[in-house]
Amino acid sequence: MIDIKLIRQNPDFVKEALRKRGEDPATIDEILKIDADWRTTITKTNELRSRRNEISKNVARLKKEGKNTEAEALIEEGKRLGEEIKALEEKEKELQKQLNDLLLMVPNIPHESVPVGEDESQNVEVRRWGEPREFDFTPLAHWDLGPAWGLMDFDRATKLSGSRFTVMYGKLARLERALINFMLDVHTKEHGYTEVWVPHLVKRETITITGQLPKFEEELYLAERDDLFLIPTAEVPLAALHSEEILEEKELPKKYVAYTPCYRREAGSYGKDVRGMIRQHQFDKVELVWVTTPERSFEDLEQLVKDAETILQKLELPYRVVALCTGDLGFTSAKTYDIEVWLPSYNAYKEISSCSNVTDFQARRGNMRYRRRSDGKLEYVHTLNGSGIAVGRALVAILENYQQPDGSVRVPEVLVPYTGFEVIP
After folding, report:
1. End-to-end Cα distance, the chain
2. Other CB atoms closer than 10 Å to residue 312's CB: what's the count?
3. How far apart are CA 372 and CA 375, in angstroms?
4. pLDDT for position 266
5. 24-44 per-position pLDDT tens digit
6. The CA-based dihedral angle spanning residues 269, 273, 274, 280, taken in that order and rounded to the nearest 10 degrees
7. Which residues have C-beta within 8 Å of that of residue 133, sequence separation ≥ 6?
8. Which 3 state secondary structure label does DSSP give 222?
9. Which of 89, 176, 249, 351 is catalytic?
10. Catalytic-role residue among 21, 164, 279, 365
């Protein structure tokens, strides 16, 4: 969440930031109103507590002096004050809850370097790598290639689980596993990440820290009996690893990588990318998370993007990097780059990684701080996250970009040691 002090001190700045995001700034006025009422209530409660403490001292003195009648009058006043204090404490708790609930619904402030725009059409291309292949035959989409070999099965997946699931067999299943191991090896051996094995089910408090709750609960799968959520990305457990902790500056940055299946209801995406494996309810992803300091977080974001790009370069898949505009930023993000891989079936670039600096937005929710070397002062950490990369979409990109005239697909050279074969099927 954003700092309440920023809203108090510069509400117009926050409102303008929300306008750039396409959000209603009226929430800020409501927050300020409740905040003022909350602080007034705290002040009044403290005044009454002070008066009650004074009465207690006077009662003891009067009784010692034998002035019991005066003491009894003060005792009665103390009782009345006690009832008022109790009522004010209840009001204070309710106002604090209302304030916190509203703050949890306010998105992050876009960084000054983020291009201003209304939607994805105003995102800014930063760079491209590689050239889309020119085919001398009519290429097939992955949803035609896989089933033609009998290695990709949407019908049985629908029978098992419904729409937007996939079953893969044989070489395609092995290719998925090969991609996961390849990505983990690159990030741990070449980029210095620590591999982490994390739970796939997390508590409500955990997924609130990373920003999915309360605003996006409809996008999540919930195991209601235990009130546990299936993770939509490994970012959730990774970014919350150090909640309620104080780290030392010398420990930072911490760089984590994890492979997990990811689970998303895709509640708002009906009709989008309905064919094939591009938009699934369950998919594999290798996720990168940094815990770093405010002074270097935007520099670290540039490195995080390069780490994700390395995977596509090694796979020799053409892609582009796009800076998201204010109107297309995710809820928690202060700045985001999308990496989009070329897919012949769409004749377009499609997102395969999203890399974001969420500044101290998650750290404030999770009370994640570090102690500065210079003066010992406690500050909130900054957290970054990025796909390193989406495994299923990488598989799709390989199938479509590496296909041959005879209907086979050549496996990228760097993956052959992981797959044990060079051609599919």
Report:
1. 49
2. 22
3. 6
4. 84
5. 999 999 999 999 999 999 999
6. -70
7. 318, 344, 401
8. strand
9. 351
10. 279
Domains and CATH numbers, the chain: 4-103 (1.10.287.40), 120-424 (3.30.930.10)
pTM over 0.85: yes
- Catalytic-residue membership of 269: no
CA distance 75 to 122: 69
Which of 174, 264, 364, 369 is the catalytic position?
Answer: 264
Annotation says 127 is catalytic: no
Q: Is 354 a catalytic residue?
A: yes
For 274-318, write each residue's pLDDT tens digit: 789 999 999 999 999 999 999 999 999 999 999 999 999 999 999
- Residue 356 catalytic? no
Residue 274 has a pLDDT of 77
Coil, helix or strand at residue 251: helix
Amino acid sitting at position 392 = G
Which of these is catalytic: 174, 364, 369, 393? Answer: 393
Tell me if 294 sits within 8 A of 103, measured CB to CB: no
E strand residue ranges, 83-162: 124-129, 152-153
Low-confidence residues of the chain, pLDDT below 70?
A: 268-271
Hey, which residues does 320 pair with through a beta bridge? 128, 340
**What's 403's DSSP letter?**
B
Q: Determine the pLDDT at residue 76.
A: 86
> Annotated catalytic residue: which of 333, 353, 354, 387?
354
Does 279 participate in catalysis according to the annotation?
yes
